[in-house]
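User: Let's play a game. I give you a shape written as tokens, and you guess the letters that built it. Ready? Here's round one.
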């Protein structure tokens, strides 16, 4: 095993060990992928201040996200088909997050079910839901999450229709993977992945198959899924889901000031400034560029988090300094998961935490709560309102 010092080291191993269709499911965006790349590239435009002759002893990156104590302001984002990246992937990721002291968010479209993740963890995790057409299924899904002890609901608001991801279509993405000469040839080269999959019974969408009406097997799942994402989603339906849940709520997929203002009126506890990792509206601005304008509009009314493009602890520090109360990693932890399973997710969190701690210290702080806009250098035209007058 090579010496692993950063997230890119994990990505190299991940690519080597994971079937092509699942690697490209994670590592591509929609259409031209402009927004997918901007999410990462725009972080590099922000610079950190360096301060010297400051006492760096007794440092802490501890914070809170929606009132929950966290080791650092980083949560594992909801990822569909996570259990196809590594056998029982959601369970492995949840266990790693729990041990490290950061939140894990389970996707509705997970391979391991709510109940299976709960059975293999000891602390509450968060659950993500889409606004689907079937209200009865939504209610039963929320009931299951409540019984499992989930402590927050993340409502995804930016998937009314599915953005076109060219590689998924060309690869025939599915769970379990369709067996074609091409996919079989590729999977035969992924021995570590294949042995893991042979050793688990979890290869379908565990929250859907056997729970949704008339979905008893994978063949009936595809038609059900195609019909369920609701293009008629509006704020009334989001508010209905909030009421149905009755607990802490985070709204994911906010990338516009007016949407942020409307979300703040719903009674939700937080919003996530997000463009779905560049997988929906291609040509949209990056999350980090939109963050300041949204914070100015609603930062005193609702907790503001962000995701998209975070590949290091320095990125976490930049987002925190700009005012985000929480950040989310998706691809970064998938690299670790596909590379080394649960140990790989732990390694991802260790890397990000170490980088965050060092960057905070070299910026002259011992407590993350003391970091602010004074600690970052932001280009004059970086804000969307400055660059485009929006």
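Assistant: Ready! My guess for every position:
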């Amino acid at each position: 095993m090579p010496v692993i010092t950063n997230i890119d080291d994990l990505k190299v191993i991940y690519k080597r060990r994971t079937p092509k269709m699942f690697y490209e499911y994670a590592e591509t965006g929609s259409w031209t992928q402009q927004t997918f790349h901007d999410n990462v590239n725009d972080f590099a435009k922000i610079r950190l201040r360096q301060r010297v002759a400051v006492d760096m002893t007794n440092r802490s990156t501890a914070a809170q996200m929606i009132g929950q104590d966290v080791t650092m302001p980083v949560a594992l984002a909801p990822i569909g088909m996570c259990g196809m990246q590594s056998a029982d992937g959601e369970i492995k990721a949840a266990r790693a997050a729990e041990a490290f002291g950061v939140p894990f968010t389970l996707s509705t479209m997970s391979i391991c079910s709510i109940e299976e993740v709960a059975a293999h963890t000891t602390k509450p995790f968060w659950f993500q839901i889409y606004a689907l057409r079937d209200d009865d299924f939504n209610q039963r899904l929320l009931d299951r999450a409540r019984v499992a002890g989930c402590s927050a609901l993340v409502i995804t608001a930016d998937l009314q229709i599915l953005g076109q991801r060219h590689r998924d279509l060309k690869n025939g993405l599915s769970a379990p993977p369709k067996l074609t000469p091409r996919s079989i040839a590729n999977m035969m080269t992924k021995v570590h992945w294949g042995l893991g999959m042979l050793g688990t019974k979890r290869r379908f969408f565990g929250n859907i198959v056997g729970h949704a009406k008339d979905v008893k097997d994978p063949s009936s799942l595809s038609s059900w899924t195609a019909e369920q994402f609701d293009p008629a989603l509006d704020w009334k339906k989001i508010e209905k889901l909030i009421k149905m849940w009755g607990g802490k709520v985070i709204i994911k997929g906010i990338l516009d000031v007016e949407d942020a203002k409307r979300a703040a009126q719903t009674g939700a506890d937080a919003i996530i400034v997000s463009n779905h990792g560049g997988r929906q509206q291609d040509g949209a601005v990056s999350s980090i560029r939109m963050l300041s304008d949204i914070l100015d509009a609603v930062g005193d009314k609702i907790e503001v988090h962000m995701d998209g493009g975070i590949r290091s602890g320095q990125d976490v520090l930049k987002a925190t300094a700009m005012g985000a109360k929480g950040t989310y990693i998706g691809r970064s932890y998938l690299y670790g998961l596909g590379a080394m399973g649960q140990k790989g997710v732990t390694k991802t969190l260790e890397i990000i935490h170490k980088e965050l701690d060092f960057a905070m210290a070299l910026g002259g702080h011992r407590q993350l709560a003391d970091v602010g806009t004074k600690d970052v250098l932001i280009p004059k035209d970086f804000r969307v309102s400055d660059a485009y007058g929006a």
